[in-house]
Amino acid sequence: MTTADNQRPLSGALLGRSFVHPVFDYMLIGGGLSLVVTLVVVARQSPSMIAPSVLPVFLLIFNSAHFSASTVRLYTKPGAYRSLPFLTMAFPLITMVVLTVCIHFPDKMGPFITKLYLTWSPYHYAAQAYGLAVMYAYRSGCLLGATDKRLLWWVSMLAFFHTFLDGEDIGLRWLMSAEQIRSQSWLPDTLTVANTALKYLAFCAPPVLFVKIWWGKSGPMPFISMLTIVTNGVWFFVLSPFDAFVWATIFHSVQYIAIVVIFHLKDQMALDGNRHGPLYHVAGFYAKCVGLGYGLFMCVPWAFQLVGYGPVESALLVVAVINVHHFVVDQYIWRLKKTDGNRTIVDSQSPAQADVAVTGGAGV
Amino acid sequence: MAVKEPVFKTTTYKIAFALGMLFIFGAIVTGVYESLRVRNRLPGLEISAEYFLQIDTLLRRNNYKLAAEQIQRAADLDFPHQKELLRRLAKTARQYKDFETEVAALKRLASLDAMSDFDVLTDLSSALQERVRQRIEVDKVVDKDVIKEAVEISDRAAQLRPDSARANCNLASSLLMAGQTDHAESFFRRAIQLDPNLVPARQGLEHINQLRRAKP
């Protein structure tokens, strides 16, 4: 036990420092709500908890809104144009050019960009879980050492490794066809063993690491840090790959929107000329996200159809390219430099001790 | 002190930004316009349902070629719905007697399940037989490679479910095409044993009898 550890009451250190309220943080940002839903999905043996007629609305208000949230965040973040000129000014045009090229050559470029985004997605979710875990640790006064951070990263990535090895048409099966895998006599069995090992590791490693960190220099880590990693694992290990993508995307979106709104609110309230209350900023930000999400995912494909492209490539490649754009933007907007005002959200009560960036370079 | 960006770089960024925004917001506005023009309503929320609707429209207008191309592309890009799309492609292709496309779709479907899905293999063997018949009718060519493939696929399906009347009947039909009449007869008989009401098996047996009677 360390001096820093002794300064923190144990119950507070384990509960962690919430952004809004422990219930809100644990259920939405930590992913507690997703565990309840996963339990129901598994118990009912069916992902159809949401009526098919309501699902598109769900996808708009969570998924589409979340993808555009990174863009809205990028353009509303004070000083973003100055600090990220390429990303804010040149990248949108590049993205649209790439999208047009993909739609123009759908058979050559389409499968590539689609497999790229589907392979990247689980990494992005795992990185977000890691980022949130580190962020809660820091703001709760658990100053993770380099080794603990590295271990936490590896544990967070277990779900990604599993999807990489097991996913259909993505990851390993993007690099090697099913026939190529079957043709290597040792490979299918090795993959089965590796996936089983990953499954067990994904459920054993977080508590072991939790105890290791507690008894090490870092002191106790809040439960919510572990919860973000465990929930990400549950999405990918408990649910079937298809259900995992559906539910992981929805709950990742909920998590993302919640945290991005907190950062946005903090920025806006700190602006000199601010004359509005929190509700105004939250509602305004979310409305922009939903509006942009609708515009990008549902309207842009029609524009490509107007100039003669097919409905399939127009719709599906817009989804793929926006996903990739979101992943790239996310790599940058969550990097908090020492001068960034948002460091105060992340840092513990004694910020001088925490001078390490909170994110893994991807996700939150 | 802040480092000043070179003027050229800043101007390039500004031009790129203006073009990018014009492109994105122009595409959004144009998209709304196109949806209103074509469908008289705003773009719908469900992405795959939207393109499915448009494929249906193509089929209603008898534009099968473009519809099949679109379903095929969707199967290449919409991985979560890939199996559903390949099944749909096979079904649509059969309706339009495009057995080549049906065979290709079913082969992909079969390979996804490591050639272990009985229904897919049975449909595939049936499609291969139809393809052989079509080639004989249209091109007056007996495609021996396709017949051989039909026998292999039918045999695999029959091995998966030896007690299926349909599988035995399919294997018998493939063997009959391959000229293995005696073998075919035994599988037709087995199919009738398993399902006495199976009309194609009875027709197959009748056909074999006719062939034998026709022989000098």
Give your account of this protein's structure.
The complex is a heterodimer of chains A (364) and B (216). With 364 residues, chain A is an all-alpha fold. Chain A is 75% helix and 0% strand. The radius of gyration of chain A is 21 Å and the shape is globular. The two termini of chain A are 29 Å apart. The model of chain A is unreliable at 1-5 and 349-364 (pLDDT under 50). Among the domains of chain B are: 10-40; 113-216, Serine Threonine Protein Phosphatase 5, Tetratricopeptide repeat (Alpha Horseshoe). Chains A and B meet through helix 5, helix 7, helix 8, helix 12 and helix 16 of A and helix 1, helix 2 and helix 3 of B.
H-E order of chain B: HHHHHHHHHH
Uncertain stretches of chain A? 1-5, 349-364
Tell me the radius of gyration of chain A.
21 Å
CATH architecture of the domain at 113-216 in chain B, by name, is Alpha Horseshoe
| Helix and strand pattern of chain A | HHHHHHHHHHHHHHHHHH
Structure described in brief:
The complex is a heterodimer of chains A (about 375) and B (about 220). Chain A has 18 helices and no strands.
Record the SSE blueprint.
The complex is a heterodimer of chains A (364) and B (216).
Chain A: H1 3-7, H2 10-15, H3 22-29, H4 32-44, H5 55-76, H6 80-83, H7 85-104, H8 106-139, H9 146-156, H10 158-166, H11 172-175, H12 178-183, H13 187-215, H14 223-237, H15 241-270, H16 278-306, H17 311-333, H18 343-346
Helix pairs in contact in A: 4-14, 5-15, 5-16, 5-17, 7-8, 7-17, 8-9, 8-10, 8-14, 8-17, 9-13, 10-13, 10-14, 13-14, 14-15, 15-16, 16-17
Chain B: H1 7-39, H2 47-60, H3 64-77, H4 82-95, H5 99-112, H6 118-139, H7 144-160, H8 165-177, H9 181-194, H10 199-214
